[in-house]
Amino acid sequence: MRFGFRRLILLSLIPLISFTGCEQPQVKFVFSQKTNELIPEAAKPVKEALVRQFGNPFELTQFEGLPTDFGDVQGTVKSVESSGKDQPLIRFQATGLENAYDKLLGLPLEWTSGKGQGHISRIKEYDFETGTIAVEKSPEIDPQSGDTFLIECVRLQFGRDLYNRHCMHCHGMSGEGTGPTSRYLNPPPRDFRLGIYKYTSTKPTSKAQEADLARTVKEGIAGTYMPSFKLLTDDEVSAIVNYVIWLSIRGETEKKLVDELYLDYSETAMAERTSEEGGETREEVLEELKEYMELDFPDTLEFATSSVAEAWEEANLEDAIVIPQKPRVADTPESRERGRKLYLSQKTKCASCHGPQARGNGTATQDFWTNPATNEKYSERGLHDIWGNLLPPRDLHRGIYRGGRRPIDTYRRLYSGIKGTPMPAFGGSLTDEELWDMVNYVMSLPYDGNR
Amino acid sequence: MGKGWCLFFLFWPIAAVVSCAMAPFVGWSFPYNNAQAASNLGIRIDDLFYIILIVTAIVFVGTQAVLVYALWRGANNREERATNIHGNHKLELIWSIIPGAILLFLAIYQMNIWADFRIKKYYPEAAVKDPLAEVTARQFEWRFRYPAIGKKLQQKPQPDDLYSVNELHVPFGKPVMIQLRSDDVQHSFFLPALRIKQDALPGLQIPVWFEANKPGTYDLVCAELCGWGHYKMKAHVIVQPEDEYQAYLKNLTQKQFYDGLGKIAAKDTGTESEAVEK
Ligand SMILES: [Cu+2]
C-alpha cells in the first residue's frame, strides 16, 4: 500500500475515462431532416417503406431490380466430415464460394435441397482457404454431398463492413455526411443521399460511373480531407463503391417519397392548412392523407425505386461517358490565348465566378444567391452547392485538381460542369476545339508566374 | 524479504533474455527478410543497434545477477544486521568511469553513420544533384511529385511533373534522395524495412536519402501521431530495377496526359486504362 496503490488505480482509470469520452456512433440508418418534418402520420409509412426496402445496418435488404450487387452465393456440399456424437457442429467442404471472400462467419445459410430444405443454419466457422464450413447441428438438417444451399447479401455486407471501418467516420452510418469527425472538416464530407457526385466522367445529367467512385476512393481528392485508399485491393474498393451506391439509392428513394408528401403533409403545411385561412380541420387532412396512402403511395414507391435504380444503371452504360470527338488541341501559346479569350468572354462567363485573373474572386462571390431548394436567399454572400455549403470558386492558379489532373479530367469538368455546384456544363455550347483551348489555358495558369 | 522475492527478481532478467533471444524466430525482430535491412545504411544502423544491445544486455544481466545474489544472501541470513556505510570511493569511480567510457566509445563509433545519414555534406553527390521526387505528407496520405523523364526536380511544380499518391517507386542499387514536405501538421516519413525515419514539418523541405539494396514492396508509414486518421497513413514504396522504374515513369506520363482518346498504358499499376474507359 505504501507505494500508492490508490495512485496506481487512478492512473489505470485514465484510459478508461478517456474511452468513455469517445463518441460512439449509433448503429442505425437515420432519416433525412425533411422526413422528420413530416406529420407523424405521413412520416411513418415513409420510414416503414425504407426499412422494408433497405433494412438496417445489421440486416441489409435489397429489393428486386437494384443495380447494386447484393451478393447471393450458391454453394454445394462437396463432402461432409464425420463428427462425433457430442460435437455441437457439423463440418463440411463446399464448392461455389469462390467469390464469397472471408466474410461468411455468422451469416445465415439456407438449405435449398436435401433433408434440410427450407431450414436456415448459422455459419459458426468458415475457412476461406479450404472452403470448410461449420454449422450448428440440428435434427432437421443432415447435409449430404450434393446438397445445395444459399447465402445471401454477402457482397453488400462485405462493403458495409469496409465502409464502416474506413468511411463511416466522416461520411456517417447512412452516408449522410455527418460522421463523428465530420464537424472538424472543411470542406465537409459528402452527403451521399442525393446521389450526386462531383467528379465524374459522365454526361451532365448522368450519375457517376462505378469507375469514377472507385477512382475517388483509390486516388483520394487532392485539396480536401478525402485521403487515398490505394492500399485497399480492387475488390475491396469495388465492394465499398457498391455499398456507397446502395446508400445513395436509399437516400434518393427517401427523398423522392418525401418530396411527394412534403408540400401537403409537413408540420408547417398542416399548421397552414388548419389555420383560419386554410379552413381545413386536422381530420380532413388526415382523411385525405389516408386516401393517398392507400391509392397512390405504392405507385410512388414503385416509381421512386425503379427510377433511381434505372438512373444508376444508365450511368454505367458506355454512352454515358464523355469522350471528346477530337484529340487535345496542341498546347501552344496561341491555343492558350484563344482559351483565355473564351474564359473572359460573355459566352462562358467564367470570369464572373473565377475572377478575371482566375483567382477565384469573381463578382458572383459578392452577391447574395437564392437557394433553389427553398427559394430563399442564403444568409451569406457567395455561391453555394446543392448541399447548402458555401462554395468559393476555385483559384485556378493553385494547381490542385480535385477531380484529377489529366487533360481529360479538366475537359470533362468543362463539358459536364461539376455536379451539385454552380459550375455549368459547356458541352454542346462550346466546340471540342474551344473546350481544348480552355483546357490548355486553365492548365497553364499555375505555371505562368503572377499574371 | 522472502525467497519468493528472490525468485521474482530472478525471473525478469531470464524472461527478458529469453524473449530477446527468441525474438528473431517468432517475428518480433526487425521487419523483412530475416531481419535484414533493405538498405545499406540500414544494415549499418542494425549493427549499431546490436552493439548497444550486447552492451546493455551484459550490464543488465550482470546487475541483475548481483541483485539476486544480494537478495538471496539476505534471505538466507536473518541474524546478520545491515550496517550503514558511507559509500565506497573505489566503487563510485568504477561505475562512473566504465559506463562513461562505453558511452564515449559509442558516441565516437557512431559518428560516421550519423554523418552519412544526416549531414548533407556527406550525402551521395549524385542523389543530391538529382532528387528523385518530392514527397508531401498530408492528413492522411502521401503524395509524390516526380520530374518529367529526363528532367530534374524543380522547387516549384512544373507543367510536365508526374504525380502519384500512396505509391512511391524507387530504383534499387543506387542512392536516391527525396524532398520531404508536409501540407498540414507534423508527420514522419518512416520506412521500417530501410531503417529510415524523418519528421516532415510544415513549411520546411527536408532532404532524405536512402539506398535500397533489394527489390520489393515495402511499407511507408507515418511515425508521428498526426490525427485520428494517422493509422490510415500507409503507403507502399516499390523498389525495382532501373528499367522497370523507367517503364513505370513512362506509364505514369502516358496516363497523366491522357486526353480520352490517345493510347494509354496497360493496366498494371494504375486504376484506369482503356479497358475501363471503353
Ligand atoms: Cu501522419
Task: Explain this structure.
Chain B: The chain crosses the membrane at residues 7-28, 48-72, 93-111. The complex is a heterodimer of chains A (451) and B (278). With 451 residues, chain A is an alpha+beta fold. Chain A folds into three domains: 73-151, translation elongation factor selb, chain A, domain 4 (Thrombin, subunit H, Beta Barrel); 158-320, no CATH class; 333-447, Orthogonal Bundle (Cytochrome Bc1 Complex, Chain D, domain 2). In chain A, 39% of the residues lie in helices and 10% in strands. Chain A has helices at residues 5-21, 33-36, 40-54, 154-166, 168-171, 210-219, 234-265, 267-273, 282-295, 297-315, 333-344, 350-354, 407-416, 432-444; strands at residues 73-80, 89-95, 108-111, 120-127, 132-136, 148-151, 368-370, 377-381. In chain A, strand 4 and strand 5 (132-136) form a beta hairpin. The radius of gyration of chain A is 28 Å and the shape is globular. The mean pLDDT of chain A is 88. Chain B is an alpha+beta fold and 278 residues long. Chain B folds into two domains: 3-76 and 92-121, no CATH class; 128-257, Cupredoxins -  blue copper proteins (Immunoglobulin-like). Chain B is built from six helices and ten strands, in the order H-H-H-H-H-E-E-E-E-E-E-E-E-E-E-H. Chain B has helices spanning 3-22, 40-76, 89-109, 111-118, 125-129, 242-256; strands spanning 133-138, 141-146, 162-165, 167-171, 176-182, 187-191, 196-200, 206-210, 216-222, 234-240. Chain B has a five-stranded mixed beta sheet. Chain B has a five-stranded mixed beta sheet with strand order 4-10-9-6-7, with helices on one face. In chain B, helix 1 packs antiparallel against helix 2. The radius of gyration of chain B is 26 Å and the shape is elongated. The complex binds copper (II) ion. Residues 137, 187, 222, 224, 226, 230, 233 of chain B line the site of copper (II) ion (CU).
